[in-house]
Every structure is written in C-alpha cells, then in structure tokens.
Amino acid sequence: QVQLVESGGGLVQAGGSLRLSCSASGRTFSNYVMGWFRQAPGKDREFVAAISRFGAARSYADSVKGRFTISRDNAKNTVYLQMNSLKPEDAAVYYCAADRQSGSPSTYVNAYDDWGQGTRVTVSS
User: What is the rounded distance in angstroms from the CA atom of residue 74 to the CA atom of residue 24?
Assistant: First the structure.
C-alpha cells in the first residue's frame, strides 16, 4: 500500500491556473501508474488524467485535454497536475490514486488501489 497526500487546491478565478501535487510514501513510487480523478457535489468520481510509471504514456479526459498536464518526479515521489484555463465546471475535490496492477494509464476508478484524501478546487466565474 502507498500513502498519498494531495495539496495545492484552493480558490481561483475562471481562466486562472493551479498546480496540484500528490506526495507518495510507503512503497517504490515508480512501481505505480498514477492518476488524478475529481468529484463534484452530487456527481460520480470521474477520471481526469493518468501517467505511466516513468512518464512515457499519459492519458487525459476529453474535458481537460489541452488545459491540464500531468507529470511525475519519481525522485521526489510526487505526481503533479498543472491546471490552466480553469472553468467553473472544473470545480471539484481532486484525488490522486495509485494503480499497482496496470502497465499503462487507466481511466477506470476501479483500476486504482490507493487513494489520497483529496484537495478541493473552487473556480469562481
């Protein structure tokens, strides 16, 4: 099991940017595919972005393509989500997650084994 702690959420105006970080501990970080998901009030948790173990492959939800960038630094045991051109509909609690099994980034919630506690992003219009 890996412990995950997100940070970097907050309040931003529409059109602004935020960078989320997720720090991992407990196991070898490079063993995990990492993902970001989000959940808005009253909605299901949805996929945002994922990155392979060494960053060669990345996957994005259509709704964030061209605006969000996922990256990782295995030396720092950290995965990042750079969010630009934020929209009110991006407001949600953002979670990072670790997938111990898959060899490539998965978009499915159930593929991920370990989750952080979430960090809230609020976007004002």
Answer: 10
